[in-house]
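# step 3/5: fold
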Amino acid sequence: MFVPPTIGRWPLRKALLPASLLAASLPLPALLPAQASLTGRVLTPDRRPLAGVEVSIAALSRRAISDSTGAFVLDSLTPGRYLVAARKLGFRPFSTMTSLFAGVGPDYEFTLQPAPQELAQVNVSADVMATQFAGFEKRRQLKIGRYLTAEDFAKAEGRPTADIIAGIPGVDIVRGRGNEAWYGSRRGAETITQGRRLRTDDVQRGANPGAGMCYATVVLNGLVVYRGDSGEGLFDLNSLNARDIKGVEVYTGTANAPQEWLTGTGGCGVIAIWTK
């Protein structure tokens, strides 16, 4: 008669483990963080596909170029709220704040408007961004407003963008509950903010909706991306990497700010940011 082997007085029997327990006993690979993606197309105003457009998220140092169908793909992105920019020589730059969530997101459509050009005065090899940035240098030499240069950002390497900008006299930074930060002002805010409201998602992130604070007009590479209109999404300064910035100019009022930037209902100052 067969006698099963024993340890002490207990017989050894082959244990039949449920599959769930067996799987749990095996080493698990490290969990990958949830990732997001940004896909879509870039079109002209008459809805023709636009190739060769640079679509970028500066805060993540990610860029893609649209193909012959206008399509672009940015994958393996960290979920969050970012500034997405699109630009191409001969067209006005476009940017928008976009929330990216884990998993496959919706397709986006960006429309770029042709930039008016005086052909007799345009050097086709000129860098459009460099031409726009020349205005920054001219205003800085005239000491109109307050300024930070690429050298200032290099000296503060590793610090969040908003922390560096906060060093400019007269600038109030409103901190969100996460890493968000916005440029605000308390100058005449009770009067300026009458009738305005912040977006719910900005308030949930920690923006101050009270009458004691208003938010400055934000200009990115010459394009107004926040005007101060009621219900408009705020511009998060920390959505930009400090290492990608080559200049910042701040006007705590509107008297000396370039008039082409005063297009909305803002009256709380202007901050213009120029990227590399």
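# step 4/5: annotate
Helices lie at 19-25, 128-141, 150-155, 161-165, 189-192, 200-204.
# step 5/5: archive (pending)
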